[in-house]
Amino acid sequence: xxxxxxxxxxxxxxxxxxxxxxxxxxxxxxxxxxxxxxxxxxxxxxxxxxxxxxxxxxxxxxxxxxxxxxxxxxxxxxxxxxxxxxxxxxxxxxxxxxxxxxxxxxxxxxxxxxxxxxxxxxxxxxxxxxxxxxxxxxxxxxxxxxxxxxxxxxxxxxxxxxxxxxxxxxxxxxxxxxxxxxxxxxxxxxxxxxxxxxxxxxxxxxxxxxxxxxxxxxxxxxxxxxxxxxxxxxxxxxxxxxxxxxxxxxxxxxxxxxxxxxxxxxxxxxxxxxxxxxxxxxxxxxxxxxxxxxxxxxxxxxxxxxxxxxxxxxxxxxx
Length: 319
Ligand code: NAP
Description:
The structure is a single chain. The chain is elongated. By secondary structure, the protein is α/β, with parallel strands linked by helices. Helices cover 27% and strands 27% of the residues. Strands 1, 2, 5, 6, 7, 8 and 19 form a seven-stranded mixed beta sheet that branches. The two termini are 29 Å apart. Helix 1 runs parallel beside helix 2, helix 1 packs parallel to helix 7 and helix 5 runs parallel beside helix 6. The structure holds NADP nicotinamide-adenine-dinucleotide phosphate. NADP nicotinamide-adenine-dinucleotide phosphate (NAP) binds next to helix 5.
């Protein structure tokens, strides 16, 4: 078994910020960054305009590369593997990766973030990768000159619609209510955009296509009336669910699967286990709030490890 005083699971803004603070404190953290998801959700975003310190904006992937490099600079170890099994009880916890490496550690920071929420349609699953997408920056260019649908009414949906308007012949935002949840600045940009339209009070009841998407079936939430709308690409942007399945049964989760911490600290019910970022936060979900909570988690872990050292020293001195 490989050993590390602190293992951080996840490599979004929360995980990398925890790594920067922990490494700088000399804790030599190991970050299990993920095999394909290293950098977290920001890897799939374009311009980040509201992360302090970047007045001109910065691309999401570049921001994450910079956070990782900052952690590496202070001695963090970044492992590009998935955590597949966690054993969190006892003094020595275990984090097992998809490559079969087991890390034994005294403290674990869970920063596994969230994943895209799905509509839950059979046709959505069948046509995923064949017109149905959850990532405009990844897949937008495939729909150049074609009609595009974006589902949702939050910042993600509106941000994706604005990005996709560069490619699509039309972009239609399908939203279940009559007003957006998105921030005013994005909503105003979308409303003023000549290529973007809105279908209000509408849900997607089916995605139609034989091999690839050709249309969506839209239901009016007030009348129940259904109709077909032509589409080549359907971008689902209806929020996220916390990625807490690895700790289910070991840590208390709330009804929606978010890890419960002893607010304002990042401590969980299990000594030596801390949680931060989007797997904890149902409200703010910003890169900067995730980063801040990563800082909190690193400080909590540092304090915990110092307590362990003090206890060990006292025990040794009384023998
Ligand atoms: P969100 O704010 O939770 O919005 C999700 C949207 O999807 C809501 O409009 C919701 O409708 C709709 N929705 C949820 N479930 C649905 C379903 N089953 N069928 C149809 N529609 C459904 O999620 P988000 O847009 O991903 O944003 C998450 C967080 O990240 C927010 O805090 C946001 O500010 C932040 N964010 C920020 C930026 C930025 O540029 N600063 C960019 C992206 C995200 P209702 O409105 O009816 O609930």
